[in-house]
Every structure is written in structure tokens, then in C-alpha cells.
Amino acid sequence: MLKTKTAKQARQDQLIEIIENDPFVTDDSLSDQLKVSIQTIRLDRMMLGIPELRTRIKVVAKENYNKVRTLSQSEIVGELLDLELNNRAISVLDTDVSMVFEKTQIVKGHHIFAMAESLSLAVIDAEVAITGVANLKYNIPVKAGEKLVAKAKVTQIKENEYYVHVFINAHDEQVFRSKFIMKAV
Amino acid sequence: MLKTKTAKQARQDQLIEIIENDPFVTDDSLSDQLKVSIQTIRLDRMMLGIPELRTRIKVVAKENYNKVRTLSQSEIVGELLDLELNNRAISVLDTDVSMVFEKTQIVKGHHIFAMAESLSLAVIDAEVAITGVANLKYNIPVKAGEKLVAKAKVTQIKENEYYVHVFINAHDEQVFRSKFIMKAV
DNA sequence: TTAATTTTAGTACCTGCTACTAATTGTAAG
DNA sequence: CTTACAATTAGTAGCAGGTACTAAAATTAA
Predict the structure, then answer these.
(1) What CATH number should be reported for the domain holding residue A63?
(2) Chain B residues near residue A108 by CB distance under 8 angstroms
(3) How much is the CA Rg of chain B, to the nearest whole Å?
(4) Nearest nucleotide by C1' from B29 CA?
């Protein structure tokens, strides 16, 4: 009864591997690949709690569908908390491990920049604006998990040019500050 | 024949919108929402070349199944073409519609910034470095589809501080230039 | 009123299953 | 050797969400 157990387990291990590598595989194909009947495949899936093909596809689809949407929707990086057009705005952003350099666990600069830039765009009362000039200073490296609070302040408006200062804090310490000149188009 | 055409077209327009907003909707649900029979929904889908639910889900799933990794892998934004440590480096980046503002089709500033910053990190011969200060100038808005070429040049090294200039061109026109002070840690 | 378009109805069949019953094969222990 | 039990295979009914097709009914335009 030892040899049989091993055979079964080995098959189920293979089954898991095949499905992980290709969630789009049918029971029929699995039955071919593992040289057992389709019923055995189904018993194995049940035992392992692996859902059927259509459900697997749906899971993959929904996971990524939401990711893509939130990514493309986020014209504002972070969440806008307060906005007074042409004056000031506040947003927050929760940092996570997807934003860091592997080596250092420090949040990549462009995420912080994106937060600042998008807030400075939001605070401007213009249909469309682009970034013209930016001066940035990173004071303290930000670690994954820290909550960032960005405050934007419009300091000057000259025709179609908007001068905006953005300060970003993590627990009351300033980690970043910047000046932007935005141009309305 | 004008009123009917409009009714049909209006329904098909709605149908397209509903499915675009939620590809996971069944014909049955569409039939409910649009107050027509399921056969009409199916005729409409055929006419419009919209595949059935299961096919739509599969497409969404497959499209994104591969994408996830390439995104998280890219520590260098763009492709590194040439590198001479502590001296100079060149990278290219193909822009696409996922990088633009919907309204204007202009590439978001932080993508260009990310390209410049990551190249300036790459050119430095240090285990770990962080961005200290950056001065940016966006000369010309970049449109989706344009190929960006970034050139980095190390101009000065002071103890643990590296001064790097990065210029980004799109078909021989300078669209962006920047100065970074990177700090080795 | 006639002809054409649009919509609805209904049937057979498809894929990739679940849920279930039952038979067969293997295997090891008494 | 046979009894007991696990493992495998076989087969059927039913389901979701369709396709493909035929045909009738309703609407509308000419």
C-alpha cells in the first residue's frame, strides 16, 4: 500500500504543477497527459480543492481585470482627500512592497514623484495641463508600508503657468519636497 | 424606417457600452437590462462581432496572464542599450496608450521621470543608491507610440554623491532633460 | 395592403463540467 | 487463498451559457 500511495501523490503533484503552469488546461487534456481516466482527474481535483477550468479562467480574468482598471483609472496617484482649486490639495498614498527596490526595500522615487505630480495637476483649475519644470528633493528614503501624505499649494499663477509646491510627509516627517511649474494647454 | 433604425442602433450602442464596462455579463442579464429577448441580444452580438461570455473571459484572462511579471520585473524602465559605469548609459522606451492621460493622449510625466531616474541609478557604480535631488524640464509633450531614447552622463562624483545629467529624445528632438544628485548608501 | 425588417420563439446540439451510482482492478493483510 | 478496502474506471443525468438553425409574429416603410 506504499507504492500505490506514492503513485497517487506523485500524480497529484504533477497535476498541481501542470495547472499552475497553465490554468487553461481541460480535464480531458490532463487525462491525456497523466495517462489516467477523466474520472480520476476529477477525483484528484476535488481532493485538492482545485476548481474547474471555467472557474479558474474567471479567477485569472477578474484578478487582472481589476488590476488593470485601477491602474489606468488612477490618474491621481493616491487618494484625494481635500481640494480647493487653484489653492491647495491633500492626498494620501499607502506604499507597499510592489513599489520598492528588492535590494533595499526603499520605495522607488518615481512613485513619490507620481504622487506629487498628479496632485499638482489636480489642484490646477485647467482642462488640461502638462508638467513644465520640476525641482525635487528626497529628504528621507521611504520604506514599504509607510503612509504618505502629500500637500500641494499653488503659490503663483502667471497666465497659463501655475507654480505649485508639493510636500510629502510620512508620520510627520518630511520625506520629499518639490516645486512644479505646470502649463495649461 | 428611421425610428426603428435608431432604436436598434441605440440598443446596440448600449450593449457595447455594457459589455465594455463589464465583460462578465451574460446574454440573459443583457436581455433583462435592455428589455429585449435573448435572441435579439444574440443577433446583436453577432452583428457587432462580439463573442460570447466565455470567450470574452478567456481573452481577458489570457491577455493579462503574462503581463503581470514583466511589469514588476522592470527595475530599469526601458531597455538598457549601453552602459559605461560612472560615465554614461543609454536606454530606450517604447511608449504606449497605457501611459497616457485619456484626455490629451500625452504620456504622463512620471513615466518619463521613471525612465530618467532608473537610468541614472543604473549608471552609478554603487551597490545601492537613492535619489537625493532632481531638476526636471519637460520641453515637448510626448505622445503615445513615440520611442524615447535616454542618455545619461555622470558629470561629477563627490564622495558618495553622484551628479548625473539625463536627456531624453524622441526622434532627435529633446523632450526632457534633468539633473540628478544620487546618493550611495 | 404588401413587402421588408425586426423581434421573438423554439429546438437540437456543443463544451466542460458537477453529482451521483456502480462496476472493476489492485493490493495487502489475515 | 480470500476477504477487505482503497483506487480507478465507467456511465448517466443534469447544468450553464452558449451556437446554429428554422420559423412565426410583430413592426414599419413604401
Answers:
(1) 1.10.10.10
(2) 114, 117-118
(3) 24
(4) D17
Q: What nine digits make up the cell of B180?
A: 540628478
The cell numbers describing A113, all together, are 514623484
CA–CA distance, A12 with A59 (Å, rounded to integer) = 21
Say whether B103 and A24 touch across the interface (CB within 8 A).
no
d(CA A75, CA A78): 9
Does residue B50 form part of some domain?
yes
Domain co-membership, A154 together with A93: yes
Report whether B133 contacts A138 (CB < 8 A). yes
For residue A106, give the nearest of A138, A79, A135 by alpha carbon.
A138
Last residue of a domain, one of B69, B92, B119: B69
User: Is the C-alpha dihedral spanning B164, B167, B168, B172 positive or negative?
Assistant: negative
Count of A-B CB contacts under 8 Å: 128
**Where in chain A does DSSP place strands (E)?**
79-84, 88-94, 129-138, 147-158, 161-170, 173-184
Q: Is residue B74 part of a domain?
A: no
Residues of B in contact with A141 (CB under 8 A): 130, 185
Question: What residue numbers bound the domain in which B10 lies?
Answer: 2-69
Q: Tens of pLDDT along chain B (185 residues)?
A: 444 457 889 999 999 999 998 999 999 999 999 999 999 999 999 999 999 999 999 988 887 675 444 333 456 688 888 888 999 999 999 998 888 887 788 998 989 999 999 999 899 987 678 889 999 999 999 999 999 999 999 999 998 999 999 999 998 899 999 999 999 87
The number of domains in chain B is 2
pLDDT digits (tens, 9 = 90+) for A65-75: 765 554 444 56
CB contacts of A77 in chain B (<8 Å) are 110
A101 shares contact with chain B (CB less than 8 Å): yes
Instruction: Choose the final residue of a domain: A72, A103, A127.
Output: A72
**Whole-structure pTM value:** 0.58
